[in-house]
Amino acid sequence: MGAAGAFWGAGSVPVALLSLASVAAVVALSGVARRVLGALLIVVGIAAAFSGHWLAIVGGVLVAGSGVLQVLLGARMPKIGVGGQKTRAHDPETDMWRALERGDDPTDDRTPGGASSNE
């Protein structure tokens, strides 16, 4: 994010937007795709650093450094996905919320996930 600010201040708005987009992409990607993004960030950072403006040089160093981290440590970093939404134990309250998300009535015995008690 600091690199994006540096590029913005240097007048390199497209590179600043690329820097911001890469933050979201790093979280969404994993494996080889994350390492390819890291290599792209290294190239962009080095190229941007040669623009001559001191803020662009700072931004380029930051982007290239984050690219190096992605290439080296990208496989170890967590990825956003459904894995974080798994429940460990059966929780009736969670089941009720999931039934609501599916459009089912959790208090109706006839729907899947509905209440098991008779009224």
TrEMBL record:
What residues form the membrane-spanning segments? 6-29, 36-55
Q: Which UniProt keywords apply?
A: Membrane, Transmembrane, Transmembrane helix
Q: Where is the composition biased (Basic and acidic residues)?
A: 88-111
InterPro entries attached to this UniProt entry: Trp_biosyn_TM_oprn/chp
Q: Which domain of life is it from?
A: Bacteria
Q: Where is this region: Disordered?
A: 82-119
Q: What is this protein called?
A: Trp biosynthesis-associated membrane protein
From what organism does this protein derive? Answer: Lentzea rhizosphaerae
